[in-house]
């Protein structure tokens, strides 16, 4: 039972970051075509962080090998998630959804 749940966890966790990379690429194109260069730069930086995490997942040490590798996986995952959250804030600010008049 545990192995099946772990497999599902890995599948969905990897799918989130793979989907985020595709979504960031689409948003980058859309914001760039609208002339919002600052937002596009933020999306590009976040894309690099997410791509780095995906490469780390594929080529890095297995998390079950040692506590250090598990810590590296968890830390990089938190950095990737925080960059996604920050990018959503920048996108909202860049499109004036966080206007001071609200």
Task: Offer a few descriptive terms.
mainly alpha; elongated; 81% helix; 102 residues
Structural class: mainly alpha
| Helix coverage percent | over 70%
Low-pLDDT residue intervals, each spanning 5 or more residues? none
Report, as a whole number of angstroms, the end-to-end distance: 50 Å
Give the mean pLDDT. 86
Total strands: 0
Strand-residue proportion = under 5%
What's the quaternary structure here? single chain
Based on CA atoms alone, the radius of gyration comes out at: 16 Å
Structural description of this entry:
By secondary structure, the protein is mostly helical. It has one domain (13-94). It is built from 3 helices and no strands. It is elongated and about 50 Å long. The N and C termini lie far apart (50 Å).
Can you describe this structure in just a few lines?
The chain has three helices and no strands. It is mainly α.
Fold topology:
Blueprint: H1 2-33, H2 37-59, H3 67-94
Helix pairs in contact: 1-2, 2-3
């Amino acid at each position: 039972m545990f192995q099946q749940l772990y497999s599902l966890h890995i599948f969905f966790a990897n799918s989130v970051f793979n989907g985020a990379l595709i979504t960031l690429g689409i948003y980058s194109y859309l914001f760039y075509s609208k002339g919002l260069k600052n937002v596009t730069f933020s999306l590009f930086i976040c894309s690099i962080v997410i791509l780095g995490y995906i490469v780390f997942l594929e080529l890095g040490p297995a998390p079950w090998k040692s506590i250090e590798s598990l810590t590296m996986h968890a830390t990089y995952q938190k950095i990737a998630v925080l960059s996604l959250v920050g990018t959503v804030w920048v996108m909202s600010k860049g499109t004036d959804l966080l206007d001071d008049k609200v």
